Known about the structure:
The protein is an alpha/beta fold and 367 residues long. The protein is 43% helix and 17% strand. The chain has 15 helices and 12 strands. The strands form 2 sheets. A 6-stranded mixed beta sheet has the order 3-2-1-4-6-5, with helices on both faces. Strands 9-8-7-10-12-11 form a 6-stranded mixed beta sheet, sandwiched between helices. The longest helix is centred in the C-terminal third of the chain and has 25 residues. The chain starts with a strand and ends in a 5-residue tail after the last helix. The model has no long low-confidence stretch (mean pLDDT 93).
Amino acid sequence: MRILTVNPGSSSLKISLLEPDDALHTRIELPTGGADRQAERVLAQVARLPRPDAVGVRFVHGGRDHTRPVLIDEEVTKRLYALADLAPLHQPQSLYALGEIRRALPGVPAVACFDTAFHADLPDAAATYALPVEWRERFGLRRYGFHGLSHAYATRRAAELLGAAPSGLRMVVCHLGSGASLAAVDGGRSVDTTMGFTPLDGLVMATRAGAIDPGIPLWLLAHGVPAREIGDVLEHRSGLRALAGTGDMRRLRARAASGDEAAEAALAVYHHRLRAAAAAMTAALGGLDALVFTGGVGEHDPDLRRRLVAGMAHLGAEIDPALNAAARGDALISPAGARVATIVVTAREDLEIAAGTRSALTGTAAP
Length: 367
């Protein structure tokens, strides 16, 4: 089954065409822009490709209803629209992309694959908020977790690189990009993660604040700041952008190297929060066998990897400086005999989407 995968992000739209054996036929990355211009780009690019048998679309939030890939029909589409305000950077983009792909490929079945699905079986202790039961039941308030497509693929691929089965490994998987989250993975299963009810929680990110005192937005509301403004700031004007004027990690590294104090301070905050969260994920596992880096920053920033591993040396993590500096693509970057393996995995959400799409259409279990 030839699958077209559609992966809308906050800053780009990634499209891949995968052959039945998962060989990559074509990969396209388009910047996000005005709706009309984006539609023209999508239609023009898809028209040049061989017609797929099915389309798989990444959706950040599946809510309580969707814990596995699902064929998209009118009822599913309605439920996905209802979740848009929980992931405003991504869910509307996915819905828009779905509409454009349907225009370009009428009659081709489309499947929704969810970032929340990998975390759907979080233990109650990790998923439950200490809020009134009537709120939790009425509004579905729980820790959902995100970046699940990336975490799931990185878990399996890291195990392959180690020549082991995921069932025998305790991993902290670090998906680090514009959005960022960690997952504690025990035996291939997510048992804790840094994002929560929405993708705002957890680590400092490019434009999102990550975990903050919930009293802050309440205090701002009480002092006349509109809820819409608070939401916009937390989604688009916080994180590294708020600390140093940009969410681009490469620019921050260059500025810090030249002595820019704001960039240095922003990176210090970022690394402090990352190190603390990685240690918390390790505690949730009761130990650590592998530390896995993926995502645009995780894959391409050796200094970030060095600093995090140094901060986890007391847990047995080590890094080989030469292997770390030379890492391109999937790579083991810890020295031989290290108690904790450190691994870089190229993010391949397209493979995870394709597998989920096939499973939804054939009734077979996804990997």
